[in-house]
């Protein structure tokens, strides 16, 4: 079996105040590249993981992928009392802890393949629950499920009484409350600089605990921009309005916290992308990936990002939205 997943941009968390009875909520865009491609074959016993680019991939990436594939496949097998084993051939990868949601896609793909090869089909939301994804944002689970532009409704305070990132939360994936096709004619430019100060693990937990709850006025302001500007702009295919909304949310609520904690290079790339002609630019999740949206001059924006990263190194991608979820075939 071959299974291919998209990656995703996480635009913002919506409500890290919680006074209305729910917390989290997320907004995201599913993108075509980079992507994760996994080939899976059953064997008699054991979990074997083989990387196609063994000689060129960083050791920390292979370790992270291996851990997630093994944990997800074991969780899926234990859930349904399955026997035997699997050989996982990792065909395509993208960086971990880069703001593109690799962890959810790896885990969901591995578990989905294990179950399908045993004739078991479960919903994406149940699959996310099995592999422990979606405890804060549901964007990765929904990207795997259906792609496109996604808004999730967060978690009730009863299920999740404290502010925690997905890595430390055991809450179930949140409900999907909006799902639209994102204009595929719009270009999305990605820039992922090489920065050592990545936000994950205990550091991420500490940030949530230190800066939450976010003031209610900030949540209200963000909700206004999302509901009355960004979401209609996607449906109207109004890239100027969408870009304006994207730029605004960089300075509101928890996204402002995320941006303020970054290396100055992140802000420099975002500004250079805008000055090069992007209608909007911002940071995905906790970064370091930043992205821009345009409809007519992607090379200028791509070059601006490369110039900004010249002293640091990094990767760039020119991609588009993907309005469908993961795909698989035997």
Walk me through this protein's architecture.
The chain is of the alpha+beta class and 330 residues long. The chain folds into two domains: 2-181, 2-Layer Sandwich (Ribosomal Protein S5, domain 2), CATH 3.30.230.10; 187-319, Alpha-Beta Plaits (2-Layer Sandwich). 38% of the residues lie in helices and 26% in strands. The protein has helices at 59-79, 102-116, 124-131, 139-145, 201-211, 216-236, 239-249, 253-260, 264-275, 298-308; strands spanning 2-15, 22-43, 46-51, 85-92, 149-152, 155-156, 176-180, 187-193, 280-283, 290-294, 314-319, 327-329. The strands form two sheets. Strands 1, 2, 3, 4, 5, 6, 7 and 12 form an eight-stranded mixed β-sheet that branches. A four-stranded antiparallel β-sheet has the order 9-10-8-11. Strand 9 and strand 10 (290-294) form a beta hairpin. Helix 1 (59-79) packs across helix 2. 49% of the residues are buried.
Based on the model shown, name its key terms.
330 residues, alpha+beta, Ribosomal Protein S5, domain 2, Alpha-Beta Plaits, 2 domains, 8-stranded mixed β-sheet, 4-stranded antiparallel β-sheet, 10 helices, 12 strands, globular
CATH class (first level) name of the largest domain: Alpha Beta
Mean pLDDT across residues:
95
Low-confidence stretches: none
Shape-level CATH architecture of the largest domain = 2-Layer Sandwich
Distance between the termini: 4 Å
Largest sheet, in brief, is: 8 strands, mixed
What portion of residues belong to β-strands?
Answer: 25-35%
By helix and strand content, what is the structural category? alpha+beta
Whole-number tally of structural domains:
2
Q: Please tally the β strands and state the result.
A: 12
Under CATH, the topology of the largest domain can be stated as: Ribosomal Protein S5, domain 2
